[in-house]
Amino acid sequence: MNTHDYGASHYRQYRRFCRVKEEDFAVLDEEFIQRLWFEELYQNPLRTMDGREIQVLQPGFWNRGAGPDFHHAAILNSKGALETGAVEIHLEPLAWKQHGHDGDPHYNRVILHVVWNAGPRDFFAGTHEHHSVPQVELSSQLRFPLYELRQQFQTTPEERKAGARIGRCRNHLALLPDSSVADILNEAGHCRFEQKCRLLQMRCQALGAEQALWIGLAEAMGFSRNSVAFHGLAQRLPILELSRFRDDVEREARLFGLAGLLPRRRLPLDGPAAAYTKQLWDIWWKERAKAEEMIVPRQVWNLRGLRPLNRPERRIAVLSLLSSRENWKSFLALAREGEPGRLREFFESLRHTFWNRHYTFEGRASAREIRLLGDGRLSGLMFNTVWPFAAGAGRDLSVFLDRARATLDSGPGRAAELRLLGGRGAGGRLGAGSILAQEGLIQIYRDFCLKDTTQCRDCRFPDLVDEMHGG
Predict the structure, then answer these.
(1) Lesser CB count within 10 Å: N end or C end of the chain?
(2) Is the pLDDT of residue 23 over 70?
(3) What mean pLDDT do residues 241-253 have?
(4) What is the pLDDT of residue 119?
């Protein structure tokens, strides 16, 4: 026997005996199953629990926030038709109902329920709209033995953190100098800004300038996760109606009440929180019965995994402050002007006796004052709402757009940065944190990555890069 082979064989046995692993997966959990799906370490085509054959064209983008585990997946169903949507992953089928997905509209777009073990009983995975979701058992359809899969994974920690794989375009962009890549991203960023301007102009024509601005402001407060819920709230309480209430608590009670986010079961134990909540309920209970059908459904809000600073309650407090007659008049003038320094000063001047010290209704007061709106949300608010409004008022924004800086803090932004640039960094040397470059990344991601169903094989963006820069 070859001495080298003998030594290697014994070491492999030693590792197996000691259960040495490349990464610490002590137990099978959903994170592990999600990673198997992300790595595409399953047989393809797959067979569903009811015997149908499906082909996975792409597993989707790994979602690290609330909602289904993977977004923008693509499959060919048993009839050969293309389906795109979300994928949800559990250890066992019953978890679908236990986690409340059958009553949650955020799961209506799930096209596949992947479970580790099917179990002895049949289970129907139904959506909020009563549609049946096909189910697949993964443990019986792996490409490699489980022990090997626990040790051998092909993706990098950066890819897993971003929830996306490095795309084919990365090699094409890597051949270009940083200045050329920055030009591409900035051009895409300008395109994205023009789309924001067109949307706001259409809303101004349909709803009037102030209501269009109010809805855009609310959407920006919701970021991407809760923008739909905030949009609905702004529709239910138009700014011209809300600003008629002189009393701050009156406006706030209606906003929180129609949002459906007032504490339901008990008043908080903390003294200031209990007094504040009682103030809101003293007004809202008189209005609640006639407004019952207008309340934003609780399940529309996406609260799971939110950082405390991003809680919608805090954003509603900002809307309440802005909706006073004086503040709204000042904000309206600043929005028409679009000057970022003055807008920043205005938002930093907003103070709330409760929410400058609290993250939630029930939480303890913070020892330090908490800003109501961070730099990231303020930058997003200006790019998505304020500057399109100023552009509609005839303001030249080229200087502001070129100079604006922001932190790449969105899930789509991080996924796009990795997929297109392989970690090269649009927030770093490519654009020195340019908001145009970062928004350009998101635009390319939406235009190409999210519309591609072939894992980059048929994507046209690499060809476009070559055509633009003579590749």
Answers:
(1) N
(2) no
(3) 93
(4) 83
Give the pLDDT of residue 374: 86
- Token pair 């303890």 is found at 364
Q: What are phi and psi of 79, to 5 degrees?
A: -95, 5
| pLDDT confidence of residue 256 | 96
pLDDT in tens, 70-100: 988 889 998 999 999 999 999 999 999 999 8
Residue 3, pLDDT score: 39
Whether the CB-CB separation of 406 and 380 falls below 8 Å is answered with yes
**Beta carbons within 8 Å of 356's beta carbon, 6+ residues apart:** 369, 370, 371, 372
pLDDT > 90 fraction of the chain, expressed in percent and rounded: 39
3-state SS, the chain, equals CCHHHHHHHHHHHHHHHHCCCCCCCCCCCHHHHHHHHHCCCECCCEEECCCCEEEEEECCEECCCCCCCEEEEEEECCCCCEEEEEEEEECCCCHHHHCCHHHCHHHCCEEEEEECCCCCCCCCCECCCCCECCEEECCCCECCCHHHHHHCCCCCHHHHHHCCCCCCHHHHHHCCCHHHHHHHHHHHHHHHHHHHHHHHHHHHHHHCHHHHHHHHHHHHHCCCCCHHHHHHHHHHCCHHHHCCCCCHHHHHHHHHHHHCCCCCCCCCCCHHHHHHHHHHHHHHHHHHHHHHHHCCCHHHCCCCCCCHHHCHHHHHHHHHHHCCHHHHHHHHHHHHHCCHHHHHHHHHHCCCCCCCCCCCCCCCCCCCCCCCCCHHHHHHHHHHHHHHHHHHCCCCCHHHHHHCECCCCCHHHHHHHHHHHCCCCCCCCCCCCEHHHHHHHHHHHHHHHCCCCCCCCCCCHHHHHHHHCCC
